[in-house]
Amino acid sequence: MNESMQIEALVAVAKKLEDNGAIVRAEQLYRQTVNTSEFLYGAVSPITGLAVLELMSFCENHNNRAEAANLWKRLRVIVLECE
Fold it and tell me: 3-state DSSP: the chain helix, strand, coil percent, rounded to 5?
């Protein structure tokens, strides 16, 4: 399994945890996924953008709008720099 597939697999597991009501564990895994992606690919890469997007979506879904707004700003930088 290549590294980008590992990131996608972590996101899939986090979503499954979230769907099953394990909200705290899901959030931890989303954050770990962002950190792992940054380590493997750098802070500005498409796969890190995916991980940030998933964490942002999680935050929005759980009414953490302030953090979601900050993650949106971060995602915007990634998108603009990855053009």
Answer: 85, 0, 15
Whole-model pTM over 0.90: yes
Residue in this structure with the two tokens 């929005």, named with its chain if needed: 60
How far is 73 from 71, CA to CA, in rounded Å?
Answer: 5
Q: How confident is the model at residue 1 (pLDDT cuts 50, 70, 90)?
A: low
Exposed / middle / buried, residue 67 (Cβ in 10 Å: 0-12, 13-18, 19+): middle
Q: Could you please report the per-residue DSSP string of 43-81? A: SSSHHHHHHHHHHHHHHHHTT-HHHHHHHHHHHHHHHHH
Domains, the chain: 3-81 (1.25.40.10)
Question: What would you report as the CA-atom Rg of the chain, rounded to the nearest whole angstrom?
Answer: 12
